[in-house]
Amino acid sequence: MPPAGTIRSFTSVNAMPDLDMMASVAGGNSGGLEQPTVRKGNIMTTDSSTIAGLDEQQSIRVTKTLTGVLADHVVLRMKLQNVHWNIFGPLFHSVHTMTEQRYLALTPSIDAIAERIRALGHPAPGRLGYLLKQSCLDEEGDGQLLDDLLDSCQQVVQQTRACCQTATALGDEITADMLIGIIGDHDEFIWQLRSLTA
User: Fold this and answer.
1) CA neighbor of 119 nearest in space, from 176, 36, 63
2) pLDDT digits over 59-80, tens only?
3) Are 124 and 70 in contact (CB under 8 A)?
4) 64 near 58, Cβ under 8 Å?
């Protein structure tokens, strides 16, 4: 591991580290994260500064919680697809249709969260194994498809609300505003799923 405060240089997106690999015990204003840099001509640019109004520590704190939210949404999308593919019985058509609409609707949210992480000056993690480790959701579930899906949606809302509160407390209104819209979409789906299965 390089000395504290050392900046690593990555020459491609594939070499880009995930957030946990960037963590280091560093002094000063590094906040425990090393900023990735990329040589001129590569896909990414140097991320040596943060967004106006947020200092480096604030950016790191928001990014860490936002990374968990990203992971939760990626895993939730897969769980929605699992229900979509494997549901059977009298509710098949309704659940099959509803889950397809929801997992398709999650894709822009996932993209917005990942792009917000980039805008905060950090790489957006894209490896499934890493995202599974960062998610609050259990990939397997308990075998009860709809109950597990409802529980997973509620956990994602809880984690997203916590991230929204962190962003608000740190003065990152842009992240908070984005998350409020995402939470509203979740709340509507949870209501529909509860109504369908009542």
Assistant:
1) 63
2) 999 999 999 999 999 999 999 9
3) yes
4) no
Strand partners of residue 78: none
Residue with tokens 């990555």: 10
Task: State pLDDT tens for residues 112-140.
Answer: 999 999 999 999 999 999 999 999 998 87
Measure the CA dihedral 164/166/169/175, to 10°. -50
CB count in 10 Å sphere of residue 29? 10
Closest CA to 172 of 182, 164, 162: 164
Q: Cα–Cα distance between 29 and 58 in angstroms, integer?
A: 11
| Predicted local confidence at residue 18, as pLDDT | 43
- All domains of the chain, ordered by start, with CATH? 56-197 (1.20.1260.10)
Contact 73, 136 (CB under 8 A): no
34-62 pLDDT, tens per residue?
Answer: 344 433 333 333 344 556 678 889 999 99
**HSE-CB for 160 with a 13 A CA cutoff:** 28
Number of Cβ within a 10 Å radius of residue 123 = 22
Distance CA(121)–CA(58), nearest Å, equals 11
Assign 23 to helix, strand or coil: strand
